[in-house]
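Holo model, magnesium ion. Inputs:
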Amino acid sequence: MIQIKTAHEIELMRAAGLVVAGALAAVRAGVAPGVTTGELNAIAEDHIRSAGAIPSFLGYHGFTGCICASINAEIVHGIPASSRVLELGDNISIDCGAILQGWHGDSAITVTVGEPSAEDAALMAATEQSMWAGLARAVVGGRLTDISHAVEESISAHEHDYGIVDHYGGHGIGTEMHQDPHVLNYGRAGRGPKLVPGLALAIEPMVTVGSPDTLELEDGWTVVTKDGSRAAHFEHTVAITPEGPWVLTAEDGGVAGLAPFGITART
Ligand code: MG
Ligand code: MG
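Output:
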């Protein structure tokens, strides 16, 4: 069932979104060679709990972290661990969620430890840009797959033949982290539920340098590329409002990210 939020409930989701934004900013600042993903997890947990919120990933179907920390060929759902040490040149995707007053925020970034190679920089830029292309379609009057199509179109526009991971995708979000509808990162525009005020979605492209085929590791969580190629993952939670998309997990509400698409964010 699709949950349509009131304007007040969207305000509450914004507060949850800002907690996630702050946690990710703190984790990003902590990324350095020699740091473990367990330490990054502790940074996120401290930030979330200090804000009076609850880490939504912890205990989710038995998950043991407050973040997912996925390195290089790991795409999503990596388990943070004190034994997993970051090295110069690693790409780490950090996914984070929090619950504040019963409302969820969910967001992810990919960053390089140190300076990225040209190939890694291009992968991350392409992935983040495709997320913003999708977010720019989170407007009243559109259809769900307008977002999916915009993500795919953005990735396909590059000369490099990136893989768009299927099966995994975005989702509705509200009083639960994962709600209907599922948001594919590809497909024809103009289909699916109408985009109406009060609908909130997590838009999250997962992109690989090589094949989009995936494997799940024996830990039952970590999803990796089958061909060992590197992957990137970016995610924001967005609310559809009469005043435009409101990117709840972006500090500026999405102003800077949506401007290149000619879309004015609600703030
Ligand atoms: Mg997420
Ligand atoms: Mg998500």
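The longest strand covers residues 91-100. The radius of gyration is 17 Å.
Archived with the compound record.
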